[in-house]
Design goal:
Length: about 450
């Protein structure tokens, strides 16, 4: 049980919180709980696209290897049998630097969906906001849709529609593929039908939208105008969203206008992309001429930065909070000491800053890794400075978990506004220096140690 709890906290919990944030943002945009589920599905599927493309590369590699080895394997199986066949196949695999376990690469596209499905199931299955919420012909999104009743038996149509869409997406994707790949996808569609048939309609709607997204993606991959179609569709959606926010949405006018302006940037993305490419080319030319500027290529720089963020958010900051008033974190429910709280934050931070970042980093292309090698140390240095230099002395916690002196400041300056301005200015300077002068590689560890000394000295 402890192992499963740790596994949940480190792997699933970060995804649950990400889904929760997306859901809240989607709800604030559309003011509809069911449409917010659709927004979550679209956002999560979009974030998963790099993982899907990585999985497809693995699957293509596996298919090419299997196609190359198939004739010889067929001959070996025709000539030999029993242990002799096994030995010949193993020798042939070693000769081609291949192992049968590599065949699991073809299932990676399905495996990466499991943690996200579990996270969505945990979040949507316990979402009170869906109780009584309706969507089109579905009266209550917290229960199975039960659209039809035949002979006293309720028939849930949404899972059936989900399965048909899933099969169609699989048919489009596996065109020209071996029968084994087709059977695998159709089998998974049947498994999800059995798993989700009696699930809440909100969860089935989420997975149905995922399948629709996958179907559209598979169709676009078969066309040569995919980029143009995506750009036109996103531009139209962004313009409609901007009009809706300004004319029909209620709330603060400034925020609505700001989000509408961000939406209007979408049609300009191709032009912005060209400008950014030119800027990057100019920066690279400066880097090549000036040896003092260096883009870090060492992967351990990324790992070290992830470790710094893990220590800050998982140990240092929670320990400092508990240290402000230890009794308030003791004898809470069945806990006699505050250590269980540290236990949770450690594994939560491990998921947020170690497990998922390192997994995504290991699957990213080399160019993305180089960008991460620049950005991650910059964020780590800024986090260290923000934690230890611009810390605030809030006093101690009351029994209601409210700070006794929230207006107090650890740095004696005239006002909070000046503190925020100084904080932002320092972070911008450090971030820029870390990106362009590789300062994080040389001074990140020293800043972290110095920050610890300064923090505990005061």
């Amino acid at each position: 049980m402890i192992f499963l709890n740790v596994l949940y906290i480190a792997v699933i919990y970060p995804l649950v919180k990400v889904i929760e944030l997306i859901y809240l943002f989607s709800y604030r945009l559309c003011d509809n709980f069911s449409l917010a589920v659709v927004g979550v599905s679209i956002a999560v599927s979009t974030m998963l696209l790099p993982l899907y493309f990585f999985a497809e590369r693995l699957q293509n590699i596996e298919r090419e290897i299997q196609t190359k080895l198939a004739p010889k394997i067929k001959k070996i199986k025709a000539v030999f049998s029993g242990d002799e066949q096994y030995m010949m196949l193993q020798a042939y695999y070693r000769e081609n630097h291949y192992h049968p376990i590599y065949a699991l690469r073809s299932t990676f596209g399905l495996l990466i969906q499991i943690p996200f499905f579990i996270a969505a199931y945990v979040f949507l299955s316990h979402l009170d906001a869906l109780q009584g919420a309706h969507f089109m012909f579905i009266a209550d999104m917290s229960k199975p849709d039960a659209l039809f009743t035949v002979g006293g038996i309720s028939i849930n149509m949404l899972p059936i529609a989900m399965t048909l869409i899933n099969i169609t997406a699989g048919f489009v994707y596996t065109t020209g593929f071996p029968i084994r790949d087709k059977v695998q996808l159709y089998g998974m569609a049947a498994v999800f039908l059995l798993m989700l048939y009696n699930s809440p309609a909100g969860l089935v709607l989420y997975w149905t939208c995922n399948n629709i997204y996958s179907l559209i993606k598979n169709i676009l991959q078969k066309t040569q105008y995919a980029k143009s179609i995506i750009w036109i569709t996103l531009s139209c959606a962004a313009i409609l969203a901007a009009v809706y926010l300004i004319l029909f949405k209620e709330g603060a006018l400034f925020k609505r206008i700001l989000v509408a302006i961000l939406c209007c940037i979408v049609p300009l993305l191709p032009a912005i992309s060209k400008i950014l490419k030119r800027i990057i080319l100019k920066i690279k030319s400066v880097v090549n001429k000036n040896n003092s500027l260096a883009f870090p290529k060492n992967q351990y720089l990324f790992y070290f930065s992830a470790g710094v963020l893990f220590i800050l958010c998982g140990i240092t900051i929670p320990a400092s909070l508990i240290n402000s008033s230890v009794p308030e974190f003791s004898f809470v429910e069945s806990f006699t000491s505050p250590f269980p709280f540290i236990f949770n934050t450690v594994f939560q931070a491990a998921g947020f800053f170690l497990f998922w970042p390192i997994c995504l980093y290991s699957m990213a292309p080399q160019k993305i890794k180089q960008c991460c090698n620049m950005i991650a140390p910059s964020i780590a240095v800024c986090a260290v400075v923000n934690t230890f230099l611009f810390y605030r002395d809030y006093g101690w916690l009351t029994p209601a978990l409210i700070f006794s002196n929230p207006a107090a400041s650890g740095i004696r300056i005239p006002s909070d506004q000046i503190l925020y301005i100084c904080n932002a200015a320092v972070l911008i300077v450090i971030f820029t220096a870390a990106v362009f002068f590789d300062i994080a590689k040389k001074y990140c560890c020293a800043l972290f140690v110095a920050g610890c000394v300064v923090r505990f000295a005061f």
